[in-house]
Design goal:
The chain is mainly β. It has one domain: Porin, CATH 2.40.160.20. Strands 1, 2, 3, 4, 5, 6, 7, 8, 9, 10, 11, 12 and 13 form a 13-stranded antiparallel sheet that branches. A hairpin with a 4-residue loop joins strand 6 and strand 7. The chain has two helices and 13 strands; from the N terminus they run αββββαβββββββββ.
Length: 236
């Protein structure tokens, strides 16, 4: 009797593990986004199926993104300056243009490693749509020199300033964000049990911190980039 109960318990656990695995998803992904810049990204991702059929999935992982471009205008980053607000209300607040300064650089080159958040829905075994966004991580890259155009300082206007990629990345809300973050909206089609193709849009915040505190006691400047994206996924 005891052996029968024990064996039944083992079979139940195995069955649940197989069932859970069929609803979950683990894959590596290589994407390339381009046009107003060039941005490859390599990631490892794990999704957990929610509900009886597991069509809706939430997930996380780790993603390395590299972004490069030629001449670029980096504008004032902090929400307290761009909109005069903090928190979610920045999404619905008009920009205060008089607080905007610009750092014009000859090129942008930033690499960043972040932990993303994933949301995905499967219409079938072949077709999925999803959204992901970086939550927290670190950035690195070379120092860049640029010309600073100040809205409220004659002495700093058109001065040469140096800046490095902002080291710490953190998702908050819109201009409240810190550092460099990548987000994607996509559709994916699985060609077979292992290989899938994705296409969509990549939206990236790329941020630099100047070596000096400049006008409005600010040293953070960013560029926002919306790029068409294609990718290949491989199930692990």
């Amino acid at each position: 009797m005891k052996k029968t109960v024990f064996l039944s318990l083992i079979l139940l656990i195995i069955n649940q593990l197989i069932y859970a695995q069929s609803r979950n998803q683990r894959y590596a992904d290589l994407s390339i986004a381009a046009v107003s810049g060039f941005s490859p990204a390599l990631s490892y991702n794990y999704h957990w199926g929610i509900g009886k059929k597991g069509k809706f999935k939430i997930g996380t992982g780790i993603r390395f993104t590299y972004f490069s471009s030629g001449k670029r205008d980096l504008i004032t980053a902090p929400a307290t300056l761009t909109s005069g607000e903090k928190g979610p209300q920045v999404l619905f607040t008009e920009n205060i243009l008089s607080n905007f300064d610009t750092l014009k650089v000859a090129k942008v080159s930033v690499g960043y490693i972040n932990i993303p958040i994933h949301l995905q829905y499967s219409f079938s075994k072949k077709l999925e749509v999803g959204f992901n966004i970086d939550a927290v991580g670190l950035s690195f890259g070379n120092k860049q020199n640029g010309t600073f155009y100040a809205s409220d300082s004659k002495s700093l206007n058109k001065s040469t300033q140096s800046a490095n990629p902002t080291v710490f990345n953190l998702l908050l809300v819109s201009d409240n964000d810190w550092g460099s973050l990548n987000s994607e909206l996509y559709a994916r089609y699985w060609l077979n049990d292992k290989i899938g193709l994705r296409a969509g849009l990549s939206f990236q915040f790329i941020e630099y911190t100047t070596n000096k505190v400049l006008t409005f006691e600010n040293d953070r400047f960013r560029t926002k980039n919306l790029l068409p994206m294609i990718a290949i996924s491989y199930k692990l």
